[in-house]
Amino acid sequence: MPDLISALQLSASEATLAVGGLVLLMLGAFAGEKSARFVSVLSILLLLAATALAVTGPLGQAFNGAYVADPLAVYGKALIFLSSAVAIVLGDGWMKRTRIARFEFPVLIVLASAGMGMMASSGDLISLYVGIELHSLALYVLAAFHRDDLKASEAGLKYFVLGALSSGLLLYGASLIYGFTGSMRFDEIAAYAATNASPGLIFGLVFLICGLAFKVSAAPFHMWTPDVYEGAPTPVVALFATAPKVAAMVLIARTLEGAFAGSHDQWAQVLILISLISFAVGAFGGLVQKDLQRLLAYSSIANIGYALLGIAVGTTLGVQAMLLFMTLYVIDQFGFFALILSLSRNGRPIRRIEDFAGLRKDRPVMALVLTVLSLSVLGMPPLAGFWGKWAVFGAAAEAGYWMVGAAGLVASVVAGFYYLRIIKLMWFDPAPEGVEAIDRSPIEAKTIAIAAALFSFPLVMVALTWLEPLTRAAAVGYGAG
């Protein structure tokens, strides 16, 4: 009984979300669609409560090592739950404007957050898979949430089919690892791999990495990303671009640098190859895009390559750089998607890049916000994105991977073309003749976009790089080297 109480205390954040999500589901089912706004508010409060429980809760292991609560998990969960809450805020405003009031939207995000929290705290292969599937099932439904839209239905179907393929790769890799080590627990796998790096175990590890790479949309496992980003509702894409990627990156760091720390030379080669392909696909693929959300999909592919490079380094500094990069990446992404939601003409969202021509004249504040965000993601000093890339490239150079870092720098320069094109359209090109005036910006989306832009300024970034929680999260035995 004491062990069960201790386990429940350690996993209180996920238990709160799971039970709370079911309660909200019952509330919505009985109250009907009119309860959508109320359920959204309660869902945000539930996610904030889960964040507080994760940050203030005890540390340790539960369920025979399957669940791990440590500073890495705490940092990841705080970022995941807060990102999910922001996605609900954006989704509530979107439902109000499109008159699609469905209480299932925030409930699905809450249930997905429970799975993402479990991913961050996974201590064995079974909890890893359960966490991935728990959050994925909710995301499949969210991708096709706007069921009257053909593109949204297509996005949900593609995500589901390719997600099933990635799950197969992941399970096959896990079965090989279990077959050769005789254990599912990361600590026991690490003990075996330190002295018996058999080819079968390495094959299993490669399949496991391929399955996890799909979850972060790293190339060449990115095939779902552009179509889902283009077809899914914008608030859903904002969620896809942030919280699930943080959960998957924390899981990859924990799995590789926890269970396979002794095989660093083998898995680092795979991650570096994936990073290089992601650099190229993200940089060059974005050059021909005309839809802003599709452009952000290719941008995310390149950015995930930078984050994976931090893990590939195999040092505490590398993990810290990855966490810093992902934190700043999440903020910039929310700024972009909030800005998309804040701009429309005659009730229709502005999505095509050409439609941003002359934005400085109609909405100068939003034009300035988009300029700051674009320069930040580009990595222009001294904005937020510069510090994230500086940390990753610095960690790579210190570990001897300076050529890979140089390739990432070249890709960043190439990607600069499509960000600078947007800036040029906004500030120097006139608006097309005969187009409607831009509608008044919704307050919640406008506020989030402006806040993200303000957060990109250097004084905040300097303070963030010295945050103790981030340092402690990277120094829990994963990536020490």
TrEMBL record:
Localisation per UniProt entry: Cell membrane; Endomembrane system; Membrane
NADH:quinone oxidoreductase/Mrp antiporter transmembrane domain: residues covered: 122-413
Pfam family, one: Proton_antipo_M
Recorded topology in the membrane: Multi-pass membrane protein
GO molecular function, one term: quinone binding
Primary location: membrane
Superkingdom of the organism of origin: Bacteria
Subunit: NDH-1 is composed of 14 different subunits. Subunits NuoA, H, J, K, L, M, N constitute the membrane sector of the complex.
Biological role: NDH-1 shuttles electrons from NADH, via FMN and iron-sulfur (Fe-S) centers, to quinones in the respiratory chain. The immediate electron acceptor for the enzyme in this species is believed to be ubiquinone. Couples the redox reaction to proton translocation (for every two electrons transferred, four hydrogen ions are translocated across the cytoplasmic membrane), and thus conserves the redox energy in a proton gradient.
Family: Belongs to the complex I subunit 2 family.
Protein name, as recorded: NADH-quinone oxidoreductase subunit N
Species assigned in the record: Brevundimonas basaltis
